[in-house]
Amino acid sequence: MELALFDLDHTLIATDSSAQWWHYMSEIGWLKKESALHHQHAQMMAEYDHGVLDMHDYLKLTLAPLVGREYQQVSQTADAFVQQHLFKQLYPMAQQLIREHQQAGRRVVIVSASEDFLVRPWQQLLAIDAAIGIEIETQQGIITGQARTPLSYREGKVAVINRWLAEQGISPGDCYAYSDSHNDIAMLEFASHPVATNPNQQLKARALVSDWPIMHF
């Protein structure tokens, strides 16, 4: 079975889901606007851009306002947020590319380092096979502030892809992969057809060395 794997943020959409969600939590009162956590969040986003972010530390920060909340409530709020604020950031060319892969008979999967409640809505919105984000741990439906491993971040993306393939009973054939970030080099190397998509400088440099196609939406 042929696959088409897509990163989400800055690959399919012209923004960062987690960063926008962080600001949205302030707007709806889940995070105090004067909180010192905002400075820490900005620092961690810069670390992500440089490829040195500790994702466990980042999740500890971003999930803190959600600890003790019902996952279902957060998921419903996030679903509305994605539809109202993020869907309009979808690149039209990206949506067309997804359709072309589907018409060619390929399974289409989003694999993102954003939280699962921000990623899952895209499966229905784009009518694709799966949309995988970092799984948030719950106990009796309540968010604990922890995440389940493997994290769909850097090399962990390949682990969750392989897990999904095993769950589906699929043996992968040709695989296309699209990402904007050097943080996804492992996923791009996993694919037989890697495509640097809206690449940052680090990924662009790697694409040129490896002779990977470069695409811009």
TrEMBL record:
It holds the Pfam family HAD. The keyword Chaperone does not apply. GO terms for molecular function: hydrolase activity; metal ion binding. The keyword Transmembrane does not apply. CDD domains: HAD_PGPPase (cd02612). Keywords: Hydrolase, Magnesium, Metal-binding. NCBIfam families: HAD-SF-IB, HAD-SF-IB-hyp1. This is HAD family hydrolase.
